[in-house]
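thought: user wants a sequence for this fold. calling inverse folding tool.
action: design(structure=
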């Protein structure tokens, strides 16, 4: 049993939070190199903290077989969301997971499919042939409407003004998640902290949720009342707030954008056809996308008793930050870990979904993962059925990672309407007439 390498420093003076938030990937890579270990100690949020960046270490933390950890989110996000499954531990967490799991069964998800497809079809139909499309903005618009329609029963066509108001409120609410939790408003003035504005938006969203519940007699709203006792109004409302917050659409948009970028490069255009026609390749591409580009970098736990993580002793009283991004690029698990290679999931190798943590793992795994992939698959299928795309030349594809991973810039793609392809049976993708073939001038625009 080894002690964690690194130094936790002195309170305040030794805190590394600013360095982490400035560039989290650079931060962990520097410490991994310095400590010669993917598990290292430092001071973060003014608390002795062990950063876990190895694949095995992250799995150890998330599996929590010894009951060593408690969640470390409530102090930062509790006021923004209120009590919900994100902040529960122990028996209460198991009971909530069992109850909410009924909302995401195969039968339940099947009942949501018509709504998802209808919205995806309408948005894809709005794309113009030859248009330069901002991928992240497009996907965010689509999945925001899907989430608010599914989880709140909000019809964007019939209630356009209400929809715009709710979307604006979810944005303001989201900004509170990534702000300093300081609550103030100057008397007699309109100035308030971002956190104060977020709390006000939360209250307005809860008011809207109550009104929607009173007039909605079917769908997800009624289902959640059935599985979480309707008498527990606060719990029902808080979970609807969680599901309709910007958190879910931003995660979905991140994965959709990363997928569209990877298959929109000149050397990977043929994969658009594979996504449409080859289920094995499609699922392998999706696994590789979540491996390389997890929407959320990781998470935080508080250590309630001494434990072992990837062979290192982590003392009680410390915090643990598990880092999904470097864990899914661990060279001990993945060959050429920084390369996009969907075939690694088709080969006879020890790499399995047990090595992926984008949706958590073990008892805290995402209960809505099946719905997430259903939405992603439906939106991508609709787009691929009607369009081919290629990234415009000269764009910076580097990512920013907080609060959600996505490209730093507005990545643009040249969209070309898909025509019937007389060589659809051909395996020669490079010469296939269905490949993107827009004018070179249009595709070489600098952005």
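)
observation: tool returned 447 residues.
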């Amino acid at each position: 049993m080894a002690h964690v390498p690194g130094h936790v420093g002195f309170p305040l003076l030794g805190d590394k939070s600013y360095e982490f938030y400035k560039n989290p990937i650079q931060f962990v890579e520097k410490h991994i190199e310095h400590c010669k270990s993917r598990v290292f100690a430092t001071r973060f949020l003014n608390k002795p903290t062990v950063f876990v960046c190895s694949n095995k270490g992250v799995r150890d933390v998330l599996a929590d077989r010894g009951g060593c950890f408690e969640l470390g989110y409530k102090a930062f996000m509790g006021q923004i969301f209120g009590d919900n499954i994100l902040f529960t531990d122990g028996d209460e967490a198991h009971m909530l997971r069992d109850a909410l799991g009924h909302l995401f069964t195969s039968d339940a998800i099947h009942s949501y499919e018509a709504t998802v497809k209808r919205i995806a079809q309408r948005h894809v139909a709005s794309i113009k042939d030859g248009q330069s499309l901002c991928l992240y903005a497009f996907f965010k618009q689509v999945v925001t409407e899907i989430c608010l329609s599914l989880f709140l029963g909000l019809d964007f066509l019939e209630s356009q003004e209400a929809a715009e108001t709710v979307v604006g409120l979810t944005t303001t609410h989201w900004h509170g998640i990534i702000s300093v939790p300081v609550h103030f408003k100057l008397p007699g003035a309109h100035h308030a902290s971002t956190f104060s504005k977020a709390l006000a938006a939360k209250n307005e969203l809860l008011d809207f949720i109550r009104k929607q519940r009173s007039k909605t007699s079917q769908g997800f709203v009624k289902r959640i009342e059935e599985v979480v006792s309707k008498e527990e109004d606060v719990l029902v409302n808080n979970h609807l707030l969680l599901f309709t917050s910007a958190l879910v659409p931003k995660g979905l948009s991140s994965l959709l954008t990363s997928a569209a970028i990877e298959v929109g490069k000149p050397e990977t255009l043929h994969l658009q056809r594979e996504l449409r026609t080859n289920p094995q390749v499609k699922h392998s591409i999706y696994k590789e996308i979540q491996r390389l580009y997890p929407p959320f970098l990781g998470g935080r736990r508080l250590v309630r008793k001494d434990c072992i993580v990837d062979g290192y002793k982590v003392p009680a009283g410390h915090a643990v930050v598990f880092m999904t991004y470097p864990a899914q690029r661990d060279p001990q698990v993945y060959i050429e870990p920084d390369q996009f290679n969907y075939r690694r999931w088709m080969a006879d190798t020890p790499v399995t979904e047990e090595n992926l943590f984008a949706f958590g793992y073990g008892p805290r795994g995402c209960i809505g993962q099946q719905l997430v992939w259903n939405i992603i698959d439906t939106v991508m299928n609709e787009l691929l059925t009607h369009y081919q795309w290629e990234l415009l030349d000269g764009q910076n594809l580097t990512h920013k990672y907080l609060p959600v991973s996505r490209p730093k810039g507005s990545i643009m793609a040249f969209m070309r309407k898909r025509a019937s392809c007389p060589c659809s049976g051909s395996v020669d993708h490079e010469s296939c007439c269905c490949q993107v073939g827009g004018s070179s001038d249009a595709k070489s625009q600098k952005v």
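thought: summarizing for user.
answer: Here is the designed sequence. The longest strand covers residues 39-44.
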